[in-house]
Amino acid sequence: MMKLTGGEIVAELLLEHGVDTVFGYPGGAALNMYDALYKYKDKIRHILGSHEQHSAHAADGYARATGKVGVVLATSGPGACNLVTGIATAFMDSIPMVAITSNVSSELIGRDAFQEIYITGVTLPITKHNFFVNKIEDLPHVIRQAFKIAQSGRKGPVLVDITKDVTGASANYETGAPYAVAVPPEVSQSDLEEIARMINKAKQPMVYCGGGVAASDGGPALKALLDKSEMPSCFTIMASGVLDHKDHRNMGMIGMHGNVASNRAMDQADLILALGTRFSDRVAQNMKKFGSKATIVHVDIDKSEINKNVVVGKSIVCDVRDFLERILPLIEEKKRSSWFEKIGGWAEKNYKPKDDDSVLKPHQIIGTICGMTRDDAVYVTDVGQHQIWAAQYIKHLKPRSFLTSGGLGTMGFGYGAAVGAQIGCPEKQVIHITGDGSFHMNMNETSTAVSHQLPIITVLLNNQVLGMVYQWQGAFYGDRYSATTVERKTDFVKVAEGFGAKGYRASNLKEFREFFGKALEEKGPVWIECLVDREEQVLPMIPNGGTVEDMIIG
Amino acid sequence: MTEKKEVISILVDNQYNVLSRISSLIGRRGFNIDTITASATQDPEITRITIGFTGTEQSLSQLLTQMGKLEIVREIFVLDPAESVFRELLLIKLKADKSVRSAIIEIVDIYRARIIDLSKDSMIIELTGAPDKIDGFMKMLDCYEMVEFCRTGVTGIHRGVREYTRFED
Questions:
Q1: Do B71 and A128 touch (CB under 8 A)?
Q2: Staple A463 to which of A16, A532, A545, B108, CB 3.0 to 4.6 Å?
Q3: Of A125, A129, A303, which is closest to B65 when you measure between CB atoms?
Q4: What is the CATH number of domain A2-173?
Q5: Residues 119..148 of A with a Cβ closer than 8 Å to B: which?
Q6: Fold entry, domain B4-78
Q7: Is A279 within 8 Å of chain B by CB?
Q8: Angle formed by the axes of helices A52-66 and A414-424, nearest 10°
Q9: Helix-, strand-, coil-residue percentages of chain B, each rounded to 5
């Protein structure tokens, strides 16, 4: 039994949960909390960000890259509010995160005190659950519960708001243990047998992988299934890296910017095995026509996803990896070569960008990066055209190595997430691919990478427009480029140097190769600005509400 | 797809913010609810929330599974009309001078309602009953001049003995 302050009890509880790194930003209401962190600074490393939003993305990137729970701290009011986009990003992509905010003292709650905000109310729809703590004796239960909820079932963010008087008060504290994460629902043998029969019988099956395959680390189990029963497979952006790009069963990305082969195979399949995915409007763009020739089997840990967007023929609520491992013995060996041949024919129609070494083509930039990085490099993107190009052209992804804001589509996600990934995986190369629009939202986070000497390489595709919106305005709004031709004069080389980072500007592939090679040798952050033509488009593309029949290949 | 009326009973932890957690989810997902009531239960740690809901089979299943994900929800179930009792309370104020008073009293008697306030030119009537009985009563009073009314929204309970189980699947 120890007499500790509330802040120290929080620190003890973090240690109990194996947390040795937190991201955050101090403030008035958080003084007691940060005073405790000062005492625990040898055990808990605190990474100070430049803005709470980036710190939240850092905790998120740390969680995505390592599989552990990301922890972010912030003060009351504006500090807590600044977390909101970061928490929502994690919520939409089911990333385990615990956000701990400080609030004003209990006696000031509800009086519109300085920097008071009702953050549990604000974050109600973007957290799995949240807690308000105004009694010190509640801390152990609440923090343990927060970690349990963040990691149980479909993972996600949990917020704990603690009043300043609680972090400052003292109480006896007895060490304990984390609460056990909820056991996923048992897979019934009869369901497994029924689904196995469907797979064994299917002539033209298609596996449709979502983020749940990545979250359950189900890649190897999926490969084992495909080795036995050859089935073409496609992935959503959230499942990038679960299947090797070289794997002949991997047909590539599905959906709005997915390729012809994947989308057509989904359309023509007689069985769709949907694994840990939610039929989002970027994949099942036309929810009525999606997979209309197929019986759809949906495997997901979240019961509320069943029949939410697309009504399916058979569903099973369980952990995806559990499912894959348990169904394997019931699966018959199958080759399905004629089905693969058919898809191979469609794959010939896949969009193929043309090389041009005299300028900088997005696919060649990304191809060059992939040729120069190690196999286990982690790629982090922002949101927009560069994000989709990265998803389409990075060819050697491993699990947990493509970090992107898939659900919320948060511009400004990338740098903070890259910081989190590099802190979590110091031995890996972290490549941040961004655009000039997104980078203007988060480049200040470079200061954090400089402080901690994080060798994050930012590859900035600068086309001087807000490219994705620009492309849509060109395609569907009669070239009326409303607020997308940014005309900024930012000198990125100078700005990089101003932050204490290295900056380069490349205008052709040869230069880019040279600068990227130099960047790989650096100990700190580097920016490489790549001048890209603004008419470069993300192709192929299926317009909103369309099907593969409406695909624009270019 | 056809829409149905259902009464849903939710047993939740009796703590800070429960009603806003429920109503926030309803707002966020756009569930079409008719009524919502909250009340104490025999267990001081548990609150009962009763929702009157109109929707398709699919939207009902979304409501049940999304609600079921809330940490505060211990149990959620649809009250089967054949196995349950539903009640609602109506207070209705009518303009009524002596020319119509006796005709109204006749309807009140038939429905076993009660007059709980009377003045020279108005009366307030109270009626407790299943929602469709209240609908019928109000229809009967249609031809009189109404000043205002309020209904509590439906509440309901299963017949027989049941035990609480934590919502898991």
A1: yes
A2: A532
A3: A303
A4: 3.40.50.970
A5: 120-121, 124-125, 128-129, 132
A6: Alpha-Beta Plaits (3.30.70)
A7: no
A8: 50
A9: 30, 40, 30
CA dist A201 and A271 (Å) reads 9
Per-residue pLDDT tens digits of chain A, which is 554 residues long: 889 999 999 999 999 999 999 999 999 999 999 999 999 999 999 999 999 999 999 999 999 999 999 999 999 999 999 999 999 999 999 999 999 999 999 999 999 999 999 999 999 999 999 999 999 999 999 999 999 999 999 999 999 999 999 999 999 999 999 999 999 998 999 999 999 999 999 999 999 999 999 999 999 999 999 999 999 999 999 999 999 989 999 999 999 999 999 999 999 999 999 999 999 999 989 988 999 999 999 999 999 999 999 999 999 999 999 999 999 999 999 999 999 999 999 999 999 999 998 899 999 999 999 999 999 999 999 999 999 999 999 987 888 999 999 999 999 999 999 999 999 999 999 999 999 999 999 999 999 999 999 999 999 999 999 999 999 999 999 999 999 998 899 999 999 999 999 999 999 999 999 999 999 999 999 999 999 999 999 999 999 989 988 999 87
Within 8 A of A186 by CB-CB distance, chain B residues are: none
Contact B71 A317 (CB under 8 A): no
Main-chain dihedrals φ then ψ at residue A123, nearest 5 degrees: -95, 10
**Token pair for B34:** 């008719």
Closest approach of chain A CAs to the CA of B21, in angstroms? 7
**Is residue B62 less than 8 Å (CB to CB) from chain A?**
yes
CA distance B146 to B138: 10
CATH entry 3.40.50.1220 includes domain A189-347: yes
Domain boundaries, chain A: 2-173, 189-347, 362-531
* B84-155 topology per CATH: Alpha-Beta Plaits (3.30.70)
Q: Note whether A304 contacts B69, CB cutoff 8 Å.
A: yes
- Residues in A touching B169 (Cβ below 8 Å): 185, 303, 317
How many inter-chain contacts (A to B, CB under 8 Å) are there?
36
Q: Which of B12, B15, B17, B57 to mutate to test the interface with A (most CBs of A within 10 A)?
A: B17
Q: Which residue of B has its CA nearest to A148?
A: B71
**A320: CB partners within 8 A, 6+ apart:** A212, A213, A215, A216, A218, A275, A276, A299, A300, A301
Strands of B33-40's sheet in order across: B33-40, B46-55, B4-13, B73-78
In chain A, which residue's Cα lies nearest the Cα of B73? Answer: A129
Q: What angle do CA A261, A218, A143 make, to 5 degrees?
A: 130
* CATH, domain range A362-531: 3.40.50.970
Task: Tell me, yes or no, if the two domains A2-173 and A362-531 fold the same way.
Answer: yes
CA distance to A201, A223, A285, per residue, from A271 (Å): 9, 18, 19
Verify whether the Cβ–Cβ distance A125 to B16 is below 8 Å. no
Q: Do the domains at B4-78 and B84-155 have one common CATH topology? A: yes
ipTM of the complex: 0.88
Burial class (CB within 10 angstroms; exposed 0-12, middle 13-18, buried 19+) of A385: buried
Residues of A acting as catalytic residues: 52, 114-115, 164, 468
User: Is the CB of A128 less than 8 angstroms away from the CB of B62?
Assistant: no
